[in-house]
Specification:
The chain has five helices and eight strands. By secondary structure, it is of the alpha+beta class. It folds into two domains: about 1-115, Roll (Pnp Oxidase, Chain A); about 125-190, no CATH class. The radius of gyration is 17 Å and the shape is globular.
């Protein structure tokens, strides 16, 4: 199983970094697999700790992917790395072992503490659409444009039926990023 979450990690200088990531649930705990290069990867390898932040505010996912990383933080309960202040729940992780890989190392972590802060009431279709669009936005260089466009067209249906202000804002941020990529790609192809 993969949990879509926000990973907070700690730099050697003590700065908190936020990144949306799909984290695998494995028998020994959690498997974090950041692509190289990655600030999250560097931070976890350096500090040996991270926090998984479970939130239903999809603006955090979209925001992190579009340069909006200034979300309220608070101290974690057991580790020196901070967590999202408005998370519904969080899990504090300690790095146990690393399986090196050129593209995507495997960071096996054990959960040393978890806490719930508010009930999770479920995602509506618009929140799901934003999460899926965020995943697409993070992989634009890996996917053919036709697939991206087809997925966005389908996801827009759920967004239009169920979105509140938060989801509309998050979607707009992602569409700005995707449009900028598309225009940059068109300029490069046009110059060839």
């Amino acid at each position: 199983m993969i949990l879509e979450t926000i990973v907070t990690s700690l730099s050697p200088a003590g700065a908190t970094h936020l990144a949306p990531m799909g984290v695998h649930v494995v028998p020994e705990g959690m498997l974090v697999m950041p692509f190289r290069p990655s600030t999250t990867l560097d931070n976890i390898l350096s500090s040996g700790v991270a926090v998984l932040n479970h939130t239903d505010d999809v603006r955090v996912f979209a925001g992190c992917l579009t340069g909006r990383r200034d979300w309220p933080l608070t101290a974690a309960d057991k580790l020196p790395v901070k967590r999202l202040a408005d998370s519904l729940a969080h899990m504090e992780l300690e790095l146990m072992r690393v399986e090196e890989d050129e593209l995507r190392p495997k960071l096996y972590c054990r959960v040393i503490h978890e806490a719930s802060h508010a009930p999770f009431k479920g995602f509506n279709r618009a929140q799901y659409a934003v999460l899926e669009a965020a995943i697409l936005a993070s992989r634009l260089r890996l996917l053919p444009w036709g697939k991206v466009q087809a997925e966005l067209d389908y996801l827009r249906i759920g967004l239009e039926k169920c979105a509140g202000q938060r989801e509309q804002e998050a979607w707009a941020w992602l569409m700005e990023k995707i449009d900028a990529f598309r225009h940059g790609q068109a300029d490069i192809q046009g110059a060839a």
